[in-house]
Amino acid sequence: MIKKKFGTRLIFCLTLLVGVNTISPVSAAGGDLGVGTTTLGTIIVDGKGMSAYYYLPDVPNSGVSSCTGGCLIHWPAITSTSVTPLVQGVTAKVSVIPTSNQILINGRPIYTFAGDQKVGDVNGQGIGGVWYVISPAGIELNAAEIAKESAKPSASPSPTPTITHRSTPKPKVQVTKKPKPKKSKVNSYYGR
């Protein structure tokens, strides 16, 4: 019980320290994949919270990674310890290449970038025009997709519209003044 409370508090404190570029606690808890928020929006992250990338030369559903040799030094494959990765928050189809357990999103291998130093970094985005972060739905977030996502209305509540009531003009009422009593030349009771 104490370890669980400590772990939750630790994740909360780390979230506060990191700020906008945070990951979901599930990712930090040791799953294979999760979802994190970055300056590019909500994306897929590995179990350590590091941004996941697609590599354009990879052929979907081929079961083969095109990033080999020196490429893997800079772009390590995201792998799972099992053929059924532990995933939280990802809505895309998740599978693995059976020979390497490299995780596939919608049939495409995924990688991290060695140049990303901390959770929330997206330094690999757009490198060489072939590396892109991935939305939870498995969409490659290239410049066009990011612009499309930015153009969507936000999920936050819109301001309440101001309702203006048109008042109907009030009919003009003519006020007629009561005539003042005329002074009579007759003296009043008191002698005036």
How would you describe the overall organization of this protein?
The structure is a single chain. This protein is α+β, with helices and mostly antiparallel strands. The protein has one domain. Helices cover 18% and strands 15% of the residues. The protein is built from 4 helices and 7 strands, in the order ααβββαββββα. It has a 3-stranded antiparallel sheet with strand order 4-5-6, with no helix packed on it. The chain has a two-stranded antiparallel ribbon with strand order 1-2. The chain is elongated. The protein starts with a helix and ends in a 41-residue tail after the last helix. The N terminus is likely disordered.
How would you concisely characterize the structure shown here?
The chain is of the alpha+beta class. The protein is built from four helices and seven strands; from the N terminus they run H-H-E-E-E-H-E-E-E-E-H.
Give keywords.
192 residues, alpha+beta, three-stranded antiparallel sheet, two-stranded antiparallel ribbon, 4 helices, 15% strand, disordered N terminus
Round the mean pLDDT to the nearest integer and report it: 78
How widely separated are the two ends?
104 Å
Uncertain runs? 1-28, 157-166
List the strand order in the largest sheet.
4-5-6
Residue share in helix: 10-25%
Shape call = elongated
Tell me the radius of gyration: 34 Å
Q: How is the biggest beta sheet arranged?
A: 3 strands, antiparallel
Please count the helical segments. 4
Tally of discrete structural domains: 1
Q: What structural category characterises the helix and strand content? A: alpha+beta
Element order: H for helix, E for strand: HHEEEHEEEEH
- Number of DSSP strand runs: 7
